[in-house]
Amino acid sequence: MTQLYQIHPENPQLRLVRHAVTALEAGKIIAYPTDSAYALGCRIGDKAALERIRAIRRLDKSHNFTLVCRDLSDMGQYAKVDASVYRILKAHTPGPYTFILPASKEVPRKLQHPKRKTIGLRIPDNNIAMAILSEYNAPLMSVTLIMPGESMPLTDAEVIYETLENQIEIVIDGGFCGTEPTSVIEFVDNEPYVRREGKGDVVGIMTS
Q1: Are 186 and 42 in contact (CB under 8 A)?
Q2: Which end of the chain is more exposed for a tag (fewer CB within 10 A), N or C?
Q3: Quick one: average pLDDT of 84-110?
Q4: Average pLDDT over every residue of 183-195
Q5: Among 168, 61, 73, residue whose Cα is nearest residue 112
Q6: CB pairs under 8 A, 24+ apart, for 189-192?
Q7: CATH top class, domain 3-206
Q8: What pLDDT sits at residue 11?
Q9: Backbone angles phi, psi at 175, to 5 degrees
Q10: What pLDDT does 113 receive?
Q11: What Rg do the C-alpha atoms of the chain give, in angstroms?
Q12: Pairing outcome for strands 3-6 and 66-68
């Protein structure tokens, strides 16, 4: 049974945040708002939840999931971050960016890019997402909530609930959070390259 939680976008109710965290700890899937679009999230390394998300999105095995982190220390645990790269990350997080970095040994192999051994990470500028991450005390394995055959993510929590009822456990209504995807920046030999220009301004990163 899917539950719909209405969480205040500015002052998230801790009781409801903890319900979402309990669900994540039990291997459940949540739909939650970020600073660029709604996303599906589950705990790291949960193969069953991962496969359920793949089935909902109809994703093949090559599709990369993102680790959504609460801060730079989380990023540093799952990625190899040079000092020059760290300065760029610090200046642009939290924000609507996904950074592709060399994966550390902490990253499950199935989450890494199969050839390049990289991982996508981000720190969202969204109070609800950050409240969940802080209470959960670990990153989330996540993908944007775009349904099969669609080009744009779902933006209305009521529609998400109706679409995914009985397919996921929790839908968090945090209001409209936009439809534009994150900007994707990949670091190659510590140099930034824009792989996708989205909501996040890339000019500042390229001139850092």
Answers
A1: no
A2: N
A3: 88
A4: 93
A5: 61
A6: 190/82, 190/84, 190/85, 192/88
A7: alpha beta
A8: 97
A9: 85, 180
A10: 54
A11: 16
A12: unpaired
